[in-house]
Amino acid sequence: MILEKFKKKQIAKKSADFSRWYIDTVLQAGLADYTPVKGCIIFRPYGYALWESIQKELDGKIKKMGAKNAYFPSFIPEKLLKREKEHVEGFSPELAVVTIGGGKKLEEPLVVRPTSETIMYEMFAKWIQSWRDLPLKINQWCNVVRWEKRTLPFIRTTEFLWQEGHTAHATHKEALDQVRKAMDAYIELYRQHLALHGVAGYKSASEKFAGAERSVSYEMLMPDGRALQASTSHDLGQNFARAFEVKFQDKEGRTQYVWQTSWGLSTRALGGMIMVHGDDNGLILPPQVAPIQIVVIPIFSDSKGESQVKDFINQIKLQLSGFRVEIDNRETYSPGWKFNEWELKGVPLRRLYQRSRLFVQQNTREVNDYNEFKRIMAGPRGFIRAFWCGNPECENKIKEETKATTRCLPLSAKEEKGKCIYCGEEAHHRWLFAQAY
Amino acid sequence: MILEKFKKKQIAKKSADFSRWYIDTVLQAGLADYTPVKGCIIFRPYGYALWESIQKELDGKIKKMGAKNAYFPSFIPEKLLKREKEHVEGFSPELAVVTIGGGKKLEEPLVVRPTSETIMYEMFAKWIQSWRDLPLKINQWCNVVRWEKRTLPFIRTTEFLWQEGHTAHATHKEALDQVRKAMDAYIELYRQHLALHGVAGYKSASEKFAGAERSVSYEMLMPDGRALQASTSHDLGQNFARAFEVKFQDKEGRTQYVWQTSWGLSTRALGGMIMVHGDDNGLILPPQVAPIQIVVIPIFSDSKGESQVKDFINQIKLQLSGFRVEIDNRETYSPGWKFNEWELKGVPLRRLYQRSRLFVQQNTREVNDYNEFKRIMAGPRGFIRAFWCGNPECENKIKEETKATTRCLPLSAKEEKGKCIYCGEEAHHRWLFAQAY
């Protein structure tokens, strides 16, 4: 009989049961664990180390854009959240509310931040007076809470970790430039650091951020054919500036509202990375992000062999000094058990970005017929490039009938002449459709 | 008339009005700002950069101790918090409670973490089964909330940032070793990185952490003669292990409770650093922690001078490549205004630790007479080294009559024969007394 402890860890096959495989991998590789708090997970050390790698890489890019890190309260007075109408409508169903503090009922309830536009811009109004104070670029690494009904580790959890960048500018042009720069940083992070291909583009009015003028997202495709919105960058126009009275005196002495942006990337990135790269043996990690890049597992049969093997390992270790190397000396486990364990934890090196890109290309279909559209969404799913007239009613009907939503209008999309896939009216762009996480 | 914007920033003199000076410095140097949320502050970029410097330095030390970073939910179910009796009694008056989630009243209220022992050890019980799983060393960088009545930026705020380390061991000896190692890391951080002298020692039973067997703290002395508890490391014994059933099978197959420790350092460290080092001109920063170490302020009278000065600055910059240098090219401010601004922000280099140490030495008094004790606490305050018999009643009376509490029994204290400063009974150690923040 083999003790529980020494049993080879078992996970479902990715090809056979994708959902089960994902949960198995996340739990068995020690990336996360469930908690007694509904919808919240623990980021265990191996999972948190992946997040630290993303943080380090992205933080450098954010600082290069001229944004500086700060920290704002995690509690937001309810009345502040209500200032921007669309914003509060969008977030109201998802809020966690503190009503008791220090043993007493609070006069005004405090919302646990679902995002920090409102608390930040209340302060921006105080800090910004003249054109000299612009642009103001603030970034924050923090936890946020959104009360979610259906949760999945990393992909959608009640509490998650993210960075949120917030900027204020003198002109709309400058703000639009910032929206694009933030998205470029995300694209670079996903492609070069995480080896994850995706499509960047504009969200439709119904899918944009609550309170934004326009949103840009990076949409990735998961192996089950569903899309994952992997980061967003928003042109907030002057919507919040008007709600929070964020004004400045321009060089000519006129009082104007600022133009604002916000942009964020969350621990959801980890979910996408696990889903896309992993295989039947478990996790596969891009070398840049892997906490351990190479594992050395000593095998010997007697004590003389042991000392020879150890000498040899010390030599190897010197030669590998540029890599993150782990020597697995645990005496209580067999080499076979260790091979399985490290395979599950995704240590061996691979080239991954080309594969991710190929998968997206092979699963992106140009469709001109609604019946075909429906067949694809009932079958293999994936991205569909189809003409849409821009009418929210068509968008809504498509969602009802196929579960597919507009993911984005790719930044690379050119104007073409076509007919809406749903109503047949004139359309000018092919949008990207998919079922989303 | 000078525009508000160009007025030299004014702060109170440190020597004349210490409390006012502290608030002026924190606000005017752009370290923090008040918020619409009672008792919460914003860590503005210049203040947050100081915290980032501490994080980077301390994170390296923590990883060297073998602890790994992770992230646990910020919400704790009320029933978990109630498991350890002393712990819940200590923290109950300070809790913020979420009672509404997603628009509905929660069946069980969630406490916003004041510290994470309970949520973590619930998981430790699941993760630890055998001696092979020990030691388990987890660290977390996060925000915590304690509902405070009187707040002061950095020193005591309702929400603050910290790291909390939590370990589980097979033996008490190993746990005690960890308690000491964590404190040694804090001492090193304070002395070498922040140039802040202090005294490390054991807390009395009434001042220890709620639920701990014994606590060690680092006590610093502020310029107004009051003590600041600047970090703590706790021997939790088996108190939480019993409450949360954290057990393991030892090598002989016997089931035993683990021995635990926890230790933390918070953004309060910034408050101590500002208070101790600053002078009448504002902030003074230790070179290691200063976000900007050298500022170059160009002065010229015409455009020809301008190009000469700029060439010269470029030369200087090359020579200073090992330092964090800022060239202040802002055209709208005069050189004089800039000098004042950077002085306030504490940029010029100084040697600071010797001064901090001297201040502590000069303000630590050995006292054997209770009347003298009272005179000192009504006057210059500072640390008092006095015999105490160990009776909590004496400790309590001294607190009532002089506002001074036992800060710690210094680790370096030797056993001596003496009489309790309050009751005159036999005493074996000189404790450190002070009025505390």
Automatic annotation (TrEMBL), chains A, B:
Keywords attached to this Swiss-Prot or TrEMBL record, sorted alphabetically, are:
Aminoacyl-tRNA synthetase, ATP-binding, Cytoplasm, Ligase, Nucleotide-binding, Protein biosynthesis
Subcellular location, in the record's words? Cytoplasm
- Domain Aminoacyl-transfer RNA synthetases class-II family profile, chain residue ranges per copy: 44-286
Catalysed transformations (reactions): tRNA(Pro) + L-proline + ATP = L-prolyl-tRNA(Pro) + AMP + diphosphate
Checking SMART domains in the record gives: ProRS-C_1 (SM00946)
Q: Which GO terms describe its cellular component?
A: aminoacyl-tRNA synthetase multienzyme complex; cytoplasm
| Domain comment quoted from the record | Consists of three domains: the N-terminal catalytic domain, the anticodon-binding domain and the C-terminal extension.
The entry assigns this protein to a family as follows: Belongs to the class-II aminoacyl-tRNA synthetase family. ProS type 3 subfamily.
* Protein name per Swiss-Prot or TrEMBL: Proline--tRNA ligase
